[in-house]
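Board notes (copied after class):
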Amino acid sequence: MKKKRKGQISVEYLMIFGLTILVLVPTVIMFKNFAFSSGDEVVAQRIKEISLKIIDTAREVHYYGPPSKKVLTLDMPPNVLSMGIIHAKGNDVSNPDDDEYVLAFELVSSDGNYNLYYDSEIPIFVEKLEECSPLTSLHSECGPNFECICFEDVEFTQGIKEFNVESTSDSDICGTVDYCVKINEISEELSES
């Protein structure tokens, strides 16, 4: 009779252990997914704040006109694969007011890569005209009517960055527009002086 009792206790112990595992495994998976998705949301929110700060500052210096400028200190979040400006040329080539300008970011998330776009009603350009790498999804946005200009990799890596936002009438940067706003990262230049 004692052997039967020990066997019954062992089976009950295994059942309790199995039930505990059945409850814990899905709970851990749900918590992991929640933690990763909320981390992605934090990065996306920080990118939105950075974009709005850049665009608002660009609008301000644009309305002051050349040679006004401002330096922004921004804390770039992790998981940014590329950052650039997409210049969508309007149908009427003689009217640059038809053109559209978008500040774009490519981010890495737990669900894969995705892009965020922020419209600017004023002409914005990157001072260093570097076409987007074919390895980024921003490059796929480019076509006959779209010019994509990316920032260099070091300009959007994680950490504190200094961006110069300056109104200019330099035709090499602005093209057919009378004056525009050029944006470039100057952290290295400031640390050297």
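Comment from the instructor: Residues 37-192 form one domain. The chain has one domain: 37-192.
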